Amino acid sequence: MAAQEEIRANWGLVGHAWVVDALARSLVADRVAHAYLFTGPHAIGKTTLARALAQALLCLAENRPCGECQACRKIARDRHPDVQVIEGVPIGFKPDENSLPPPRANDWERRILKIDQIRAIQHNVSLAPFEGRWQVIILRRFEEANEEAANAFLKTLEEPPRHTRLILTARDASLLLPTISSRCQIFALRPLTPAQVETALIERWGVEPAQARLLAHVSGGRLGWAVRAHANPALMESRRRHLATLNDALNEGRAERLSRAVELAKTPDELLEMLDLWLGWWRDVLLIQTPTGDGARVTNVDHTDALRAHAAQFSVAQVHRALKAIRETSRYLTQNINARLALQVLLLNLPGLGS
User: Fold this and answer.
1) Taking the complete model, does pTM exceed 0.70, yes or no?
2) Which of 52, 197, 282, 337 maximizes the CB count within 10 A of its CB?
């Protein structure tokens, strides 16, 4: 058990112990898969795990990954010549050899992984590694690959060079072509417990305990989001604003909701984030409504009174309809359906506090 704990510590992850154990065993047995797919919600640790696996594959020490050797340090800084981290580019962005896409505005920013990027990968993997045993390609958010890119990448998955290891991340395996996900060893990462997130925030990032406790619950087990929210108060302010919008809409009549949908459609980059927060809100209401629900899994712990009021005001059937409508709207928005119309339908389908 002590040796196992030491191995997990070397990987540097918070939680996801079962995944680390499985990957570490495959390394010891020299049975590394040619392609992995790490799935789970945004900011749950998929890319962190992918980098840790790259370090374990290329580490120069005996206890891999050590985190201290030259290879591990280079990978941590995205400077290793045998490790590439690829992700989609913003719509309209035209990369060249000297430019990189800007940082994401938020977790829900829409990007596209294009065929030109896949072709560049295919050229690179045809070459031998520069320093290590493997070339490691990390493709973040592969659900953003367009059809051309996904089909082109399938050829690499079918006949990967022996010196190449591929690591894909995605929110869910169902968002990828079955022919792609079936050729990967899949690890579905689960949200961390609030206690795990709270402890990590306090011990690793020096967050004040009360703030750590709040972020641990609000994050829904996504440590990456909690860390960013601690560093950037704008994330919590954005959350406050989106939840206030929901509450305002529930107090409005039909005409007001139609007008609100028009205004919301003017900020398309915020809509998926907003709807994700609304989903979390209605899930919390449903948790409070369940006979055995003690509120332990509620995420919006700073709005407990409002959640209990909604749980009393609305029926379970109304809450289920709201959840279904929000999920459908999120799907529509990723399919380029008219945002204004989709939001109008959604807002008209939400229950009202005056009804």
Assistant:
1) yes
2) 197
